[in-house]
Amino acid sequence: MRGTGNYLNQSHQPILLFLHMLLFNPPIGVRKMLIFFLCFNLSLTINAQQPTWVEEAPGVWKTIIGKPDAFDLLKAAEVPARLDGLEKLSASGFPLEKTDIKAEVIHGQTHLRFPLEREEQLFGFGLNFKTVHQRGNILRLHVDHYGGRDNGRTHAPVPFYVSSLGYGVFINAARYMDIYAGTGSRRDSPNAPEPRDRNTDDQWSARPYSDAVEVLIPTGGVEVYLFEGPTPLDAVRRYNLFTGGGPLPPRWGLGFVQRVPRLFSEEDVMQEVKDFENRGFPLDVVGLEPGWQSKSYPNTFVWDPGRFPDPEGFISTLKGKGVRVNLWVNPYISPDSPLYEKLFPYTASHTVWAGIVPDFTMDEVIAPYWGFFEKEHVKIGVSGYKVDEVDGYDQWLWPDVAKFPSGISAEQMRQTYGLLVQKQSAAIFHRRNQRTFGLVRASNGGGTSFPYVLYNDYYNHRDFITALINSGYAGVLWTPEARASKTAEEWLRRMQTVVFSPMAMINAWASGTKPWSFPEVEEEVKAMAMLRMQMMPYWYSEFAKYHFEGTPPFRGMNLETGFSFGTQKLTMSDSEADLETNPYAEVVKKEIKDQYMAGESLLVAPMFEGEEERKVILPEGKWYDFYTGEMVGEGEEITVRPGLSNIPVFVKDGGIIPMTTPSLHTSGAGEKYDLIIRHYGKKEGSYFLYDDDGETFDYEKGDYSWRELKVVHGEDGRLQGTVSHPESGKPDYLGKISWEFMSP
Amino acid sequence: MRGTGNYLNQSHQPILLFLHMLLFNPPIGVRKMLIFFLCFNLSLTINAQQPTWVEEAPGVWKTIIGKPDAFDLLKAAEVPARLDGLEKLSASGFPLEKTDIKAEVIHGQTHLRFPLEREEQLFGFGLNFKTVHQRGNILRLHVDHYGGRDNGRTHAPVPFYVSSLGYGVFINAARYMDIYAGTGSRRDSPNAPEPRDRNTDDQWSARPYSDAVEVLIPTGGVEVYLFEGPTPLDAVRRYNLFTGGGPLPPRWGLGFVQRVPRLFSEEDVMQEVKDFENRGFPLDVVGLEPGWQSKSYPNTFVWDPGRFPDPEGFISTLKGKGVRVNLWVNPYISPDSPLYEKLFPYTASHTVWAGIVPDFTMDEVIAPYWGFFEKEHVKIGVSGYKVDEVDGYDQWLWPDVAKFPSGISAEQMRQTYGLLVQKQSAAIFHRRNQRTFGLVRASNGGGTSFPYVLYNDYYNHRDFITALINSGYAGVLWTPEARASKTAEEWLRRMQTVVFSPMAMINAWASGTKPWSFPEVEEEVKAMAMLRMQMMPYWYSEFAKYHFEGTPPFRGMNLETGFSFGTQKLTMSDSEADLETNPYAEVVKKEIKDQYMAGESLLVAPMFEGEEERKVILPEGKWYDFYTGEMVGEGEEITVRPGLSNIPVFVKDGGIIPMTTPSLHTSGAGEKYDLIIRHYGKKEGSYFLYDDDGETFDYEKGDYSWRELKVVHGEDGRLQGTVSHPESGKPDYLGKISWEFMSP
Asked: Rounded CA gap, B293 and A143, in Å?
């Protein structure tokens, strides 16, 4: 029964025992005397501790407060740190004043405090959808479907944040924790805000200055990790590497994904695939939604003999066409599933849609459950899963009063269920030396390396982009999937962002929408889809950098050097006009949440339905138009009117983008491909191109190559490019190589 | 240090100690063996307990689970039960199958389970604004400003619910508790829902049947109370009486209240009072908002010498005009307050708007703090307070990591702060034998008897009415205050509901709105205001019934006998059209949340801006129009078009409404008043009229009278009325008595 240790707190025990002898129904007279004694006693026990820190890995510092739970996020994920990557980052010592960090355990709860400078900015705390700057927010981190407010309830409420001052903090607990990201003011703080008279002082603020991040974890101890910079991006890299580095998807995982409607049959799917072929739209993966199995919500996990009489033949036929099959599941077991009887004793006290809920922390579950998946799905060629319903809502998941046979609490299970299904399903593929790339609805701290992309049912396009930005601070991947649209314009705008995301996917499970569903923009959509395929060498190399170096392929502007905009001002609106509706004149934030970095050199500024132009903030240096190579600006705010067919994308001076020829499917294992190398701007540049077989885990044995694409000024002063050879013994997948100097 | 006992749980102690010896970093090999041992051990410790119940008061049953916190809601409120009232209710024994109630303490948290029948309905769980039926909801009870969702965060998250089967449940803990009001399905329940295949079975539901209310309290034990019926209203009465019965306001408290704009001066207020006089609008109380004191947010609690050079003179002048003064405060102390130095050591670790936060559980605070209020305000004639900012938001209240010198946790303080300020401020007036009636922003279980009405900054008119209904299930009072309006119609509609509420108030602190601010409807507004004054004998008697008998003066239709409508059906919308936005076709509820009972015989059905007609559901029996006496229907749904000037109000057959002559101020202590008794319908009837001096607590010594107003058929078959004499020695405040038979 892991996860129980937390309910004792040695430092309090003697007092508590004493309390028990006295506190319950003492003679009335005794009580007052008691209060004083206890206050006195309390004051002894709650003096803030000074944590001691140990360097766990290069630039990664660890401390243990009180008695942590036996079960936590890192134990759920069970992924070793990528020390190779961490060692390459320059570490320069503990990044904060140790004395500024306080921790104590009171009433069996852990209180943490971290310092906050005046101009410091905070990012992270998981997959938020509306805010990038987290300073001033209060969050209760809780795995759940995103409910429209950044309050901590989200698909990946990762207890990690990064500071603009260049350090990161991770709290390793599988608990609902309360985060006060610079909101509380302490009476005795040297930085306590000065009181003001709201009646007469227009400098009065509803939220006075706060000099700390404070965290409450409802358990008697916790592990805390601190990550050095020096830059915020370095701190993010360290967190990602410490938690295993990003996943390296199979090449096909970065191709196009179409999820077909529920209850589709073998023939329906075949027809859809044929349509893609005939219309010349790229397709690498077909996702089957509810209906491939005989019963779902809860699930049998068995193919429906009516809709799929010959799954193995069906899958190999598709494979022959260069298309993989992904299966939707949720983990809850139907009485009609062969798994039911055997697993029944190892399931929760409560059901989900009347299906039993497997306790994924128990070996009695793991082997038979995933063994069945391997036998029935993976062995016959299934390429991966979409694991649904592991996030929320509360209304249909198990309640927090539920009990699990392992003794793990419902809360801990809620916080880690997504991690557990990712870890255990990915293991099937790993032991078969076959990469997978799937979808999951919940993750958490420690899950960086799992080959899964998060998604949900929320559908606000702008907020999808903000989530994409925040995914880069949380060690997760997020897809702004396109499902349906009211207009052709919206459809095209959504498809444009899908192409510049970790998974280029249409999820047509309910709508049956196809890329060409809006004929007015069919050609534009196709062009974008093809662009995704042409950029494959770039995408693949960027994911390799996520894997080996920890750099998120999609990330916020605030992680970009030379991006100074957006210092958060907590300014009070001085208009009293809105006192009726907003009596405290709530603070307003200035933040950039609608443009992002895609890989090393690309700045993407999506257009949203109804927009004809938009502002883009360019970091320092010259920036060039991705499509034309023209210079567009230099460390400034520009306004662009790209027209309908293009999504604004910009390349930094000297940026090199390796591309290839258009194709309907990504290249297969070991297959050679032609390289078309684009260079932008006037500067010399260098880019490292990653290659391996694209499908197996042989890269773990060293079967991969990094090749430098280099552009320098020749003697004639003109730019010229070279491509290094792979080290001896390393694979070479390059066919014809050509150069395009976009800004001559 | 009360509130610490909860962190031990004897039943677990041996195991936990054992765990400690083994669990933390055991030799790797041992771990697996350990898991099994612990699972086994767990299974022994978590078998559901069978609580034992003791009849604490007539029809009130109590059980103690585990080791409750030393500090809880009832200890915060410290109000004795009204045994006299409870003894008058017929008790018929424990209302549930004892074996259907389960309780256990796991991991230091208390799990509770109560049974739920198929057609059973649930009401309560505090001051909700959008829903009346709570079955199917999940709430985390947490004192806070209402944020627009019924999720448990509200001004009075009272852990009390009442069942349509005629019993009530109260959980006495000052904790954030999770309520699953019929949402979870247990694997081993005899009533477990049958699994369905969502792919093909249109009976599939996103929320399968649940047969229990389950509660998680994050502490090692709790007190639970069960209240007998036989009717749901009886269960509510018992809860109210057990927590002290409703407050008996001074008569003037039920008159008209105008809260003037912030920074108003003595002269400004005098002018406003004169305007009321000149225009002939009733006025009993003027409320001073921020600015009467020298500094606020945080507060000095000292009169501003510029705006109020002579507060005592000012107050007595107003008193001479029949107008009382109420003072806005929040509890947070400015360094410029005389209280600052002395109370500093007894305040929280965190400040609110840079003001120190008094620990109201400590005698070192209570005496000096409220003593100062008595000396500076009450002694010179202040009639009461509006205590603001004791609810939330999290953004400006103390965080849950804050520490209080008494050792009470920030969570417990948050849940009870509103109770403590009500109790302690009310005590000032009680010891002066002077009644008060004020406003407060937060309350909780146990606060029934405090003379305070809840309010907030939310301003949705419909939701205000739903809150008024829910207040009747929560032992609190709520005012749908009018602040401002965009149109004359909205203003009039809001004023009409204000008149049929516990406190007839305009809160113009920000807008400066006056009753006559919309000239188009000035006369209609005045007529409604005068109606409020004419109905004073009815309102006053109904509050007396709240006080002595526990019957909420404003309550939901579901508490009315003969109101059968609204059995909640959890039906799944079968339209799949909305799968994109609502992939689980969320359940829909059928409930009545826009009409309510006001006192014994009145049914109020407010009109909202833009409505010309509305539907009204009449309980069994004949119902009559309040204004005309005409019969409108009988146990049916009717549609009414009242026009702009009237709010639809209906009287049950035989209903008797004691009224008086119009006046601008309520009658003073001992003053006689004329009685105009209205009778509606054809039935004989009886009504008990309450009287006392209207200002002091002498009624506690028995100085009050109940007189029966009786209507019977005379020998000629015509209805005739009689008024009983007061018992000997009881006061008589009646002047001229006249009868109006409204439905001849």
From this structure: 46
Residue A28: is its pLDDT beyond 80?
A: no
Residue B203 sits in the same domain as residue B177: yes
Residues A58 and A131 in one domain: yes
Interchain pair B401, A192: CB under 8 A? no
ipTM of the complex: 0.91
Q: pLDDT tens, A193-216?
A: 999 999 899 889 888 999 999 999
Task: Find chain A residues with C-beta within 8 A of B38's C-beta.
Answer: 1-2, 4, 407
Low-confidence spans in chain B with pLDDT less than 70: 1-48, 564-590
Residue A85 phi/psi, 5-degree rounding, is -70, -40
Q: Are A39 and B405 in contact (CB under 8 A)?
A: yes
Q: Is residue B70 part of a domain?
A: yes
Residues B230 and B88 in one domain: yes
Test mutation, A204, A350, A458, A589, chain B, max B CBs within 10 A: A350
Predicted confidence at residue A109, as pLDDT, reads 96
- Mean pLDDT computed over every residue of chain A: 91
pLDDT of B206: 87
Dist CA B726 CA B733 (whole Å): 10
Residues of chain A in contact with residue B580, where contact means CB-CB under 8 angstroms, are: 459, 483-484, 510-511
Q: Which of A194, A224, A242 is the last residue of a domain?
A: A242
For B148, nearest residue in chain A (alpha carbons): A149
Distance CA B659, CA B534 (A): 5
Amino acid B221: pLDDT: 97
**Nearest CB to B353; choose among A6, A10, A208:** A208
- Compute, in degrees rounded to 10, the torsion defined by CA atoms B531, B536, B540, B541: -90
Q: Judge if A86 and A177 occupy the same domain.
A: yes
Task: Name beta bridge partners: A741.
Answer: A679
Q: Which residues of B touch A217 (CB under 8 A)?
A: none
Inter-chain touch B199–A262, beta carbons under 8 Å: yes
Predicted local confidence at residue A314, as pLDDT: 98
**Mutation site for B-interface testing, chosen from A187, A262, A307, A506 by largest number of B Cβ within 10 Å:** A187
Q: Note which residues in 720-739 of chain B have CB less than 8 A from chain A.
A: none
Give contacts of B2 with chain A, Cβ < 8 Å: 23, 35, 38
Among candidate residues B242, B272, B297, the one where a domain is terminated: B242
How many CB atoms are closer than 10 A to CB B109? 26
Pairing mode, if any, of strands B177-181 and B212-217? antiparallel
pLDDT tens string B307-346: 999 999 999 999 999 999 999 999 999 999 999 999 999 9
CATH assignment of the domain containing A102:
2.60.40.1760
> How many percent of chain A have pLDDT more than 90?
85
For A212, the domain range is: 48-242
- Note whether A394 contacts B: Cβ–Cβ < 8 A: yes
The Cα B550–Cα B86 span in angstroms is 9
Q: Model-level pTM?
A: 0.92
B183 in the same domain as B52: yes
- Do A168 and A185 fall into the same domain? yes
Task: Evaluate whether residue B600 is within a structural domain.
Answer: no
Tokens of A73: 């996020």
Asked if residue B118 and residue B37 are part of one domain, the reply reads no
Q: Are residues A215 and A67 in the same domain?
A: yes
Rg (CA), chain A: 27
Is residue A567 situated within a structural domain? Answer: no
Domain count, chain A: 2
Say if A696 is an interface residue toward chain B (CB within 8 Å). Answer: no
How does pLDDT run across A691-744, given as a tens digit for each residue?
A: 999 999 999 999 999 999 999 999 999 999 999 999 989 999 999 999 999 999
User: Kindly report the CA angle at A386 between A381 and A387, in degrees rounded to 5?
Assistant: 120
Are A402 and B184 a contacting pair at CB < 8 A? yes
Q: Of chain A residues 149-178, which have a CB less than 8 A from chain B?
A: 178
Q: Which of A36, A34, A41 is nearest to A13 (CA)?
A: A41
Residues 267 through 296 of chain A touching chain B, CB cutoff 8 Å: 290-291, 294-296
- Asked whether the beta carbons of residue B17 and residue A8 sit closer than 8 angstroms, the reply is yes
- Answer yes or no: is pLDDT of A571 > 90: no
Identify whether B201 is part of a domain: yes
pLDDT at residue A227 in the model:
98
Q: Is B6 on the interface with A (CB under 8 A)?
A: yes
